[in-house]
Design goal:
Elements (H helix, E strand, L loop, with lengths): L5 E4 L7 H9 L5 E4 L3 H9 L10 E4 L2 E4 L1 H11 L7 H23 L8 H27 L11 H16 L8 H11 L2 H6 L12 H10 L3
Parallel strand pairs: 1-2
Antiparallel strand pairs: 1-3, 3-4
């Protein structure tokens, strides 16, 4: 396979959105195939495209890659967003894992029962402001550099930017106590590839709505 990477997922954020962010940050154009029915999903499994019977699926460099973390690690390595040595890579991986924990809460939020939404939103706010954002505020303050690791734009920065914006959509004042993260967000917004991704008409997906939730439940129903 040659040409652009091909992404197979639903027409919404989910687990593919971080992959879209990373490819866009690297300046890589990609094509997308959207699953809309359970039959499409079952066919991918039957045809042997999904190693663990799960999407996201990314076809890149002749490979059919699954598992979000593996896909992103490959993209980060290929486009020099994974640090200059093992120590930098370890730091980036640690930061990415931490942000992923927060993103998992955000990912599951649209599927909360109506009576649990307020409680789950409070949990996201509590985790963001007490556990995750303070870490990155401290890192940026201590080394006084523009980016999280080695003063160079990396996968960790992309993940953090995605998380900040995702939390802000739900809690607009979440960065009020984090001046370093406010500066970081502004700088990241002006990185040319990120700036382009944040413009209307880019492959970035809107926040999940009821239709997206319904489609997810329909495609993946047991």
């Amino acid at each position: 396979m040659s040409g652009k990477p091909r992404l197979t997922y639903l027409n919404g954020r989910g687990r593919m959105e971080s992959i879209r962010w990373l490819l866009a940050a690297a300046g890589v154009e990609f094509d997308e195939v959207y699953l809309e029915t359970k039959e499409q999903y079952d066919k991918l499994i039957k045809d042997g495209f999904l190693l663990f019977q799960q999407v996201p699926l990314v076809e890149i460099d002749g490979m059919k890659m699954v598992q979000t973390r593996a896909i992103m690690s490959y993209i980060a390595g290929k486009y020099n967003l994974h640090g200059k040595d093992l120590k930098e890579r370890a730091l980036i991986d640690m930061y990415v894992e931490g942000i992923s924990d927060l993103m998992q809460m955000i990912l599951m939020f649209p599927f909360s029962p109506p009576d649990a939404k307020e409680k789950n939103l409070e949990s996201i706010k509590e985790r963001a402001t007490n556990r995750y954002f303070p870490v990155f505020e401290k890192v940026l303050k201590q080394h006084g550099q523009d980016f999280l690791v080695g003063n160079k734009f990396s996968w960790a920065d992309v993940q953090l930017m995605e998380a900040i914006l995702a939390v802000e959509e739900k809690i607009s004042t979440v960065l009020s106590g984090f001046p370093q993260l406010q500066v970081f967000k502004t700088k990241m917004s002006n990185v040319p590839t990120i700036k382009k991704f944040l413009q209307p008409g880019s492959p970035r997906k809107p926040p999940p709505d009821a239709h997206y939730v319904e489609t997810v439940l329909k495609v993946f129903k047991k």
